[in-house]
Amino acid sequence: VSTQSAWATVDPRILASGAEDSSIRLWDLRTDRSVRRFSDNSFEGDAVSSIAFSSTDANRMFCSVAHKVYEFDMRNPGILVREAFVNMEVGQDEINQISVHDNGNLLAAADDMGEIHLVDLSRHGVIKTLKNKHKNLCNTVRFRPGSEYELFSGAFDCTMVAWNFVSAKPLKRIDMAKEIHINGSSNNQTVNPPFVQCINFSSDGQYLTVGLGNGNVLLYEARRLDQPMLVYDAHMGSVVQTSFFGSSSLVDMRIASTGNDGLVAVWDVSTIWDRLTSESADEERLKPLWGVSHHSKPNWMVVDPSSLALCVADTTSHITVYRPQL
Q1: Please, what sign has the CA dihedral across residues 215, 219, 223, 225?
Q2: pTM reported for the whole predicted model
Q3: Which has the closest alpha carbon to 60: 41, 38, 80?
Q4: Which long-range contacts (CB under 8 A, 24 or more apart) does 117-123 make?
Q5: Could you report the per-residue pLDDT of 70-81, keeping only the tens digit for each?
Q6: What percent of the chain has pLDDT over 90?
Q7: DSSP three-state, residue 118
């Protein structure tokens, strides 16, 4: 069963995916084939929950399994790699997502306790823990690109926290239930609470999207978190993942998303703005620029930075590649 996936910095056409079969596979999108498999005997039987690559050293790949983080050396020539280069114990609870800072020296790990552990990748140990701001499982964590001190986390207590991870102090804590109520979301919060499912940044770090459990997607300017720039009803179920699709300029910004309703879609931000501010805004459901109904429940989605293909991992053992013609 495919879980999370990431792009290899060594080659933008190589996709890495982790699964419940205790393995990581590298896929070459030019041939749509698996080209390498990574595993370690110490996590046999446990699912790979998250994958990240170093942006400064193309040979370093990291994954989280249970409460540990493993590093694999991509220079290992084997097609089947059966041993991690190093493993690091991080906290005491299940890790849900990891993120590597632009400088390549720090890794953040979000866990079921609602804590974010900062790992020094040169010393292979935890140096700091950000805590006491999430009251439930911390599901997602991201370093802000281009920032020396900002990190964002989201949790099942329906909050997103912007941190100064250097001082270990929060810069802003946002209650998503209040946020979407103020901004007029029509999605049902009782059936699907606005858990923070995912946070993703534009490549320049100026904007971020937040996907919620009630199906909403929010767009923020990273330096102005007092109010979202946009809130729209993207999915009939929980959002699974979002990503900026191509340009992050507001003039032609597009956002890709997928959710538990099976919809895989690309949204045009300017069209959404026009639609939400028009007199007929409440008459019919917002429609994506492009969309398809996926055959299985999605678990993850990433956008190929070179071709803008959408790669969707789901509850099967396959990864589906969509190439929207826009």
Answers
A1: negative
A2: 0.94
A3: 38
A4: 117/90, 117/91, 118/165, 119/69, 119/88, 119/90, 121/54, 121/60, 121/71
A5: 999 999 989 999
A6: 79
A7: strand
